Amino acid sequence: MNDDGFEIVQGVVSDDEIVRLSSALENSGPRHLMRFPAVAALATDRRLVEIASRWLDSTAIPFRATLFDKSGLRNWFVAWHQDATLPLESRVGSPEWGPWSVKAGVLHARAPAWAMERIVALRVHVDESTLDNGPLRVIPVSHRRGVLTTDEILTLAREGTPVDCLARRGGVVAMRPLLIHASSKAETESPRRVLHIEYASSLDLAPGIRLVTA
Question: In this structure, are residues 147 and 112 in contact, taking their beta carbons and an 8 Å threshold?
């Protein structure tokens, strides 16, 4: 596989399935969506699991789902960053984990690179992602640098060539969490909803370190 750190796969989920998913997400809130049957069913669907498994070289297990809902009414800018925080069952004594936080009752920690390398995210597009509605932007191959400081991230973003990840409704963008990414504010009233589902090769990352399903 060409590991630029991301992949765009069009036409994964049908229009009818997206309509049903959209209805299920109407009053869901943004976080901890694996508890919703419609989300759990999609996350474990063979089509998504096969994509995630290719990236992990292992059978992929979904453990966290988040809804990003950007529109003219809910519009925001996301600066260049990496995703390096994981939901865990209990605290880890190793100094390579942390800082720690609790979000909606779930324990989270900033994770080391070796743990994040066992994760892949699939972004299921509930709406089409266009240049006008604040699409995901990535710096290819930047995930190979490991967990970076804010200054290192900004330097690589300035030096790199950003790619806009445009996907039609029902398309999927697969990405490595440590890939440097951002998004601009939407310039249109049309929504850009993305269901962000994270997968791991195992919920047990190491002895005594277990992911929580959220």
Answer: yes
At 154, the pLDDT band (50, 70, 90 cuts) reads very high
Calpha distance 136→181 (Å, rounded): 7
Q: What's at 178, amino acid-wise? A: L
What integer is the mean pLDDT of 9-30?
95
Nearest alpha carbon to residue 91 among 108, 104, 74? 108
Residue 81 contacts residue 181 (beta carbons within 8 Å)? yes
State if pTM tops 0.85. yes
What are the structure tokens assigned to 85, written together?
């925080």
- Please name every residue paired with 200 in a beta bridge, in sequence order, or none if there are none: 61, 119
Q: Which residue has tokens 């750190």?
A: 5
- Residue 186, pLDDT > 80, answer no
Radius of gyration, CA atoms only, the chain: 16
* Structural domains of the chain, ranges and CATH numbers in brackets: 6-203 (2.60.120.620)
118, two tokens:
């066992």
CB 158 within 8 A of CB 36: no
Contact between 172 and 43 (Cβ < 8 Å): no
Using CA atoms, how far apart are residues 179 and 62, in angstroms rounded to an integer?
Answer: 19
